[in-house]
């Protein structure tokens, strides 16, 4: 990877991480409620019955309320578990699932572990991002887990990244392994980028 791209990514991630730290507790609550409403509507529109979603950290737009409600409504939700080899295992979310600290200190579920190919059965992937640009290029946090997952799927369903409104930007630094997303979900809107869903 050219150093200039990596440096640009690092600088942008640092700026975004710092901005996320300044969001108030009230702002986080409002963001989680907004994201839940947007994701509920997206799942409904797509008729998704099996999805994957990540468990948000305290600085990300919250996904926990959405996951709990989706499970309660009978939607099969796969949650990611990081592995040392750069791949993701998955487990099915349950109402009483225990959450522990994962490989990088991120919240991860405790449950029966399904291998990386389990995600091939979902109708919708909901993934984290630091930022997404208008072309659908996603800037992740630098470990490549979701780029590898998306890139390895034979028939990839719609992929939506959850970000704050200010993180939907004109341009993000792009490298060859970076995978685009179908759209973004923010606390106030859902934007389809490739026309696959709205």
UniProtKB/TrEMBL annotation:
Q: Name the enzyme's class.
A: ligase
Keyword list, A-Z = ATP-binding, Ligase, Magnesium, Metal-binding, Nucleotide-binding
**Enzymatic reactions:** (6S)-5-formyl-5,6,7,8-tetrahydrofolate + ATP = (6R)-5,10-methenyltetrahydrofolate + ADP + phosphate
Keyword flag Transcription regulation: no
The family database entries (InterPro entries) matched by this protein are listed as: FTHF_cligase, FTHF_cligase-like_sf, NagB/RpiA_transferase-like
Q: Name one GO molecular function term.
A: 5-formyltetrahydrofolate cyclo-ligase activity
Enzyme Commission number(s) of this protein: 6.3.3.2
- What SUPFAM superfamilies does the record point to? NagB/RpiA/CoA transferase-like
Cofactor names from the entry are: Mg(2+)
Q: Which family does it belong to?
A: Belongs to the 5-formyltetrahydrofolate cyclo-ligase family.
Q: What is this protein called?
A: 5-formyltetrahydrofolate cyclo-ligase
């Amino acid at each position: 990877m050219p150093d200039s791209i990596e440096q640009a990514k690092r600088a942008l991630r640092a700026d975004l991480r710092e901005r996320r730290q300044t969001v108030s507790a009230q702002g986080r609550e409002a963001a989680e409620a907004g994201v839940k409403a947007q994701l509920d509507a997206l799942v409904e529109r797509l008729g998704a019955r099996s999805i994957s979603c990540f468990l948000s950290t305290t600085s990300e737009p919250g996904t926990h309320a959405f996951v709990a409600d989706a499970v309660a409504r009978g939607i099969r939700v796969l949650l990611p578990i990081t592995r040392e080899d750069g791949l993701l295992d998955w487990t099915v979310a349950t109402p009483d699932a225990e959450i522990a600290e994962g490989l990088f200190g991120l919240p991860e579920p405790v449950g029966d572990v399904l291998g990386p190919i389990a995600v091939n059965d979902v109708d919708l992937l909901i993934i984290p991002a630091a930022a997404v640009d208008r072309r659908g290029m996603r800037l992740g946090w630098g470990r490549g887990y979701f780029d590898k997952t998306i890139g390895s799927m034979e028939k990839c369903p719609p992929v939506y990244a959850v970000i704050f409104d200010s993180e939907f930007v004109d341009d993000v630094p792009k490298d060859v392994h970076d995978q685009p997303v179908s759209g973004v979900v923010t606390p106030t809107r859902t934007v389809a980028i490739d026309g696959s869903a709205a």
